[in-house]
Amino acid sequence: MKPGGVFAAWGYDWCRIRADIDEVISDYILKVIEPFWATQNHLVWNGYKHIDFPFRKIPAPKIEMKQHWNLTQLLNYINTWSATRLCIKSIGPEFFEIATDKIKSVWGDIEMVKEVKMDVHIYVGRN
Predict the structure, then answer these.
(1) Measured distance CA(23)–CA(67) in Å, rounded
(2) Using CA atoms, how far apart are residues 41 and 70, in angstroms rounded to an integer?
(3) Residues 6+ apart with CB under 8 A from 4
(4) Are residues 90 and 36 in contact, defined by beta-carbon separation less than 8 angstroms?
(5) Domain 6-126, CATH among 2.50.20.10, 3.40.190.10, 3.40.50.150, 3.30.450.20
């Protein structure tokens, strides 16, 4: 990188909807698929705090992504995660089917749109 050049890394965190929904997602999906995540994902989830970047840090804005999804859209999103796909390939789709039923029980009408929030972690530094 040229002197004075800027490096930026970013990634987003788990989705948050409402405490009872978040708890079901954690218990029935996140805990099940945890062993299937690539180790690099933890770097993002920890906000890049444990990386010794060789750049002078530049303050970055706090960003929160917001989506408005119904239950089908949320489940389709979760189903794209590499860990979800690997877990299904390894142990089968039953855990996801059980999780879907559990989430439905706290979601309400599956067509009801809810706000889905995700924190964005950003590291910006100057060479």
Answers:
(1) 19
(2) 26
(3) 126, 127
(4) yes
(5) 3.40.50.150
Q: Mind listing the pLDDT tens digit of every residue in the chain (127 residues)? A: 899 999 999 999 889 999 999 999 999 999 999 999 998 888 888 888 888 888 999 999 999 999 999 999 999 999 999 999 999 999 999 999 999 999 999 999 999 999 999 999 999 999 9
Query: Which residues partner with 58 through β-bridges?
Result: 124
Which residue in this structure is represented by tokens 């917001």? 66
Q: Check: CB of residue 10 under 8 Å from CB of residue 121.
A: yes
Q: Which residue has the tokens 């929160």?
A: 64
